[in-house]
């Protein structure tokens, strides 16, 4: 009698089914572990950025850098217009390697392109020189109540229709709770979210500031956040099904909401902030905007002035 060699079809199908079941169980675990590693790198980036800001304010009488203003730079034998942004202001203190460096989140490296965005604003057709420090890709949005537009520079003008003095550390009663950088986007006006995104707000009215900022839960539904005292941590966020586009017209497919204090309430108001009113009312903050303060109801956020 001949001995059977190999496997029957049924046995092969059973083995394949077992492998498929194991893969279905393990692949999401591997994906979460990979994203956790990216989250750790991202959080390290944000911490180094806020430490860079902290060093900057030590050199400038405890004044935070401005968001952006018009300037010039030399390219060969030519002087070109450029925008000196917060990226260039902080760079000497962290020695970033321009694109794909500390300003880039590993889960969303090309979230925004500063050179391409400011190019038409400074009448410079080259996105590689339009930002004075030649920055292009960046992934983190600043709190525009901390890194503000600044006063109108004599003879050059600002990039936004807004004028306010740079913020000083002494103005912050709760620096350890006031955000500086976060996973997020500068947003174009419009989209399907409500309240809608706006751009270049001239007034100091909360919560828009200079730009609408949209935080983004890039790492297993968490947002990496850096604070004015130099520390960083991850905050849990909830997503809402509505869409918008960032300053480079890239799609932002969800709005993310931080629901814990103090960013969930404006000072002087009893009601919580509404992160989104569609499709259902969702309380919380979509932007981590504002300077943390305190009123009779407890911790809250206010505008820079």
Could you explain how this protein is built, in words?
The chain is built from 3 helices and 17 strands. It has 305 residues and is α+β, with helices and mostly antiparallel strands. It has one domain. The strands form 7 sheets. Strands 5, 6, 7, 8 and 9 form a 5-stranded antiparallel sheet that branches. It has a two-stranded antiparallel sheet with strand order 1-2. A hairpin with a 2-residue loop joins strand 16 (291-295) and strand 17 (298-302). The protein is globular and about 90 Å long.
Observed structural traits:
305 residues; alpha+beta; five-stranded antiparallel β-sheet; two-stranded antiparallel ribbon; 3 helices; 17 strands
Please outline the helices and strands.
Elements: H1 9-59, E1 68-75, E2 78-85, H2 86-94, E3 112-113, H3 114-118, E4 137-138, E5 140-142, E6 179-187, E7 212-215, E8 222-227, E9 232-236, E10 238-240, E11 244-245, E12 251-252, E13 255-257, E14 274-276, E15 282-283, E16 291-295, E17 298-302
Antiparallel strand pairs: 1-2, 3-4, 5-6, 6-7, 6-8, 8-9, 10-13, 11-12, 14-15, 16-17
Helix pairs in contact: 1-2
Beta-strand share of residues: 15-25%
- The sequence of SSEs as H and E is HEEHEHEEEEEEEEEEEEEE
How far the N terminus sits from the C terminus, by CA atoms, comes to 94 Å
Number of domains: 1
Instruction: Please estimate the helix content.
Output: 10-25%
DSSP summary: helix tally: 3
């Amino acid at each position: 009698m001949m001995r059977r060699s190999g496997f029957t079809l049924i046995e092969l199908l059973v083995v394949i089914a077992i492998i498929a079941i194991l893969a279905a169980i393990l692949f999401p675990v591997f994906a979460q572990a990979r994203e956790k590693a990216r989250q750790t790198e991202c959080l390290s980036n944000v911490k180094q950025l806020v430490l860079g800001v902290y060093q900057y304010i030590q050199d400038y009488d405890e004044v935070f850098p401005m968001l952006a203003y018009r300037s010039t730079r030399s390219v060969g034998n030519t002087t070109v217009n450029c925008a000196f942004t917060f990226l260039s202001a902080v760079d000497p203190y962290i020695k970033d390697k321009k694109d794909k460096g500390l300003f880039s989140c590993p889960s969303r490296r090309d979230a925004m392109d500063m050179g391409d965005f400011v190019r038409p604003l400074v009448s410079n057709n080259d996105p590689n020189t339009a930002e004075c420090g030649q920055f292009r890709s960046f992934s983190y949005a600043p709190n525009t109540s901390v890194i503000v537009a600044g006063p109108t520079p004599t003879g050059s003008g600002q990039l936004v229709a807004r004028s306010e003095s740079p913020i000083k550390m002494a103005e912050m009663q709760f620096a350890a709770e006031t955000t500086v950088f976060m996973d997020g986007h500068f947003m174009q006006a419009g989209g399907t979210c409500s309240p809608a995104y706006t751009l270049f707000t001239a007034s100091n009215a909360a919560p828009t500031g200079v730009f609408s900022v949209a935080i983004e839960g890039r790492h297993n539904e968490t947002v990496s956040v850096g604070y004015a005292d130099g520390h960083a941590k991850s905050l849990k966020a909830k997503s809402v099904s509505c869409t918008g586009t960032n300053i480079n017209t890239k799609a932002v497919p969800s709005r993310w909401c931080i629901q814990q204090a103090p960013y969930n309430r404006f000072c002087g108001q009893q009601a919580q902030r509404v992160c989104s009113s569609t499709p259902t009312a969702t309380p919380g903050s979509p932007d981590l905007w504002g300077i943390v303060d305190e009123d009779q109801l407890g911790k809250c956020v206010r505008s820079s002035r």
